[in-house]
Amino acid sequence: MIYWVKFNRESGDIVMAGHSVTRGEMRLQEERHRDLAVVEADGPTMLNGEPGKATYIEAVRIPLIAAIDDAAEARLQALMPTAARAVVYAAKEDEARSGATSSPFLDAEAEATGVPRKDLVKAVIAKSDAFRAAAVAIEAKRQAAKKAVRDAATIPAIIAAGEVDWGD
């Protein structure tokens, strides 16, 4: 079952809510009235058996916030593909920043690759700094977009706020 909310494109006024078996049926609602738009909702748009404007808006807002989180997570995973590797990279960063002349990960990697340890330390720190800068930018955009979606008062404003320019 696909739940949806139909609203006026200009005013943002909610016209009706309903459900369809397929997304195609949902889109037919939009095609019948060009001044209206239809957006998928996060389940039935009822509260205690009664529809309400706030309920309709939240039915749009909630999945959009989740989609923003998912998009940010996908970008972070592209930078750091596995949790296990993230632990290893964090350990290597700790070793590189510690200033110690000997450490298990960096010593083993230097020996295995033939890269001088001091060059490896510089490379690990540079990579860590680059990851941190990218992660900070992603997190800032994620938080700003979620705040904008939470603060938006109409469905068109919510949808517009959820269109994040991730820069990719």
Could you give a quick summary of the protein structure above?
This protein is mainly α.
What does this structure look like?
This protein is mainly alpha-helical and 168 residues long. It has one domain (2-161). 62% of the residues lie in helices and 11% in strands. It contains six helices and three strands, in the order ββαβααααα. It has a three-stranded antiparallel β-sheet, with helices on both faces. Helix 2 packs antiparallel against helix 5, helix 3 packs across helix 5 and helix 5 (117-151) packs antiparallel against helix 6. The chain starts with a strand and ends in a 7-residue tail after the last helix.
State which percent range the strand residues make up: 5-15%
Element-by-element helix/strand order: EEHEHHHHH
Question: Strand sequence of the main sheet, in spatial order?
Answer: 2-1-3
Rg (CA only): 24 Å
Query: How many separate structural domains?
Result: 1
Let me know the largest β-sheet. 3 strands, antiparallel
Mean pLDDT, to the nearest integer, reads 85
Give the count of helical stretches: 6
What portion of residues is helical? Answer: 55-70%
**What characteristic shape results from the CA principal axes?**
elongated
Derived from helix and strand composition plus strand pairing, the structural class reads mainly alpha
The total of beta strands comes to 3
C-alpha termini separation: 33 Å
List the uncertain runs: none
